[in-house]
Amino acid sequence: MDLDHFAGLLSAQLRRPAVPVEQQLSTLKRLNFHFSPDLEAHFQAHPESYEDPAYLTLLCRLAQDAPDQVLVTVPESPTPEIMYRELLKGLCALTGGSYSLSGGDLAPISGGNRILTFSLNGAACGYEAQDLGGWLDMGLLTHLNHLLSQREEKRRFLTVEDIRLPGQLVFFRSPQWAQFFAAATSLDAKEA
Fold first, then answer.
1. 140 burial class (0-12, 13-18, 19+ CB within 10 angstroms)?
2. pLDDT tens, 130-153?
């Protein structure tokens, strides 16, 4: 990504207008998100906390209560193995039990990278992760999407990045859903 493109992206993200909570809830419900009555009442009781940045704050809060609908990645940890294990556990929850992801052991290899070993529905898998210190190599999601395409799965891990998020929002939905999501929320959801 060149600097001009990055600056334009940053500017667009910071200029998104606030959106009333009722409108956000209605939009997200149309996109097949589900909210408990208690969580919906919480959003409506504290609308000023969720109107700006539009959708991001509400989705981050939803991730705490409904980890099977959205995941917020933790991009940095002093213990990378725990970070990858937690990511795999979160991704497994997103699939709603369709896929089992476990493991997350890291071993150094030549060139400074690390091999991440894990299992997908019981099959042993590996991913050569860049050694980014305590930061996640999010290329793992691209690798998982490749494995899912080999299994003819229609859904993929989709991500939303925003300057106001420390990590990324992750969904397990179809690429077509990502287009509807982007049009409805002005957040760019794309296949990892």
1. buried
2. 888 788 899 999 999 999 999 999
Query: Whole-angstrom Cα distance, residue 102 to residue 94?
Result: 13
Alpha-carbon dihedral angle through residues 190, 32, 73, 3, given to the nearest 10 degrees:
30
Farthest-apart Cα atoms in the chain, separation: 54
Q: How far apart are CA 40 and CA 38, in angstroms?
A: 5
- Over 70: is that where the pLDDT of 188 sits? yes
110-119 long-range contacts (CB < 8 A, ≥24 apart) are 114/80, 116/84, 116/140, 118/84, 118/88
Q: For residue 4, what pLDDT is reported?
A: 59
Helix H, strand E, coil C: the string for the chain is CCHHHHHHHHHHHHCCCCCCHHHHHHHHHHCCCCCCHHHHHHHHHCHHHCCCCCCHHHHHHHHHHCCCCCEECCCECCCHHHHHHHHHHHHHHHCCCCCCEEEEEEEECHHHCEEEEEEECCEEEEEEECCCCCECCCHHHHHHHHHHHHCCCCCEEEEECCCCCCCCEEEEECHHHHHHHHHHHCCCEEEC
| Token duo for residue 30 | 């149309």
